[in-house]
Amino acid sequence: MKMGRTILEELSKEGVTFLGYEGGITGYSVILDAIESDRTIFTFKGCNDDLSYRRIKNINTRWLYLSSMMDKSFNTAKKIVYHSNIHNIKVAFNPSLYLTEKGIKYLKPILRNTEILIFNKEEAQTLLRTKSENQFQMLNDIYKLGPRIVIITDGKKGVHCLDSIEKHFLLFKTKSC
Fold it and tell me: How much is the pTM?
């Protein structure tokens, strides 16, 4: 819990309020990065999969960021998004490959109420069940599922973004190392 406490203290310094509960073994991730290939992420979820809606304090914010929540926590995420929609709270969602493998039907309750959806190309392809490299088509197909802004990262090839509110398609290239 010491590491979890450190993270909570740093978030608090930045004005971020933690909405969950404390207890259990803190989850953590180790990211292995490589110059010539994609990174590898090892994750231990710990108590992250045990988030209960009734344990969350009153949600009073303009934005929420949700990441890969599984099991009991995913059902809680659906309730949070529903609450957010009623109270005009915008949601940014960053699903994992694990969640995108579950498919559109599984993620639909969150996707249709998401302001900003962020994921990598492999996750986008998995969600759409395609091997297509056409980023523009993938962005459009994902937009039809509900998110207002869709962002797909693609390593050194950059970031593709569809802002359906402003009707923009953007490509941001990253500098090589």
Answer: 0.78
Asked if residue 24 is part of any domain, the answer here is no
pLDDT of residue 57 exceeding 70, the answer is no
Residue 4 lies in a domain: no
Are the CB atoms for 140 and 162 separated by under 8 Å?
Answer: yes
What separation in angstroms does the CA of 110 have from each of 21, 27, 33, 148, 174?
A: 22, 23, 30, 12, 29
Write the CATH number for 82: 3.40.1190.20
Instruction: For residue range 117-147, list pLDDT tens digits in order.
Output: 999 999 999 999 999 999 889 999 999 999 9
| Whole-number Cα distances in Å, 27 to 13, 21, 30 | 21, 13, 11
- The residue behind tokens 């509900």 is 146
Residue whose structure tokens are 């962002």: 151
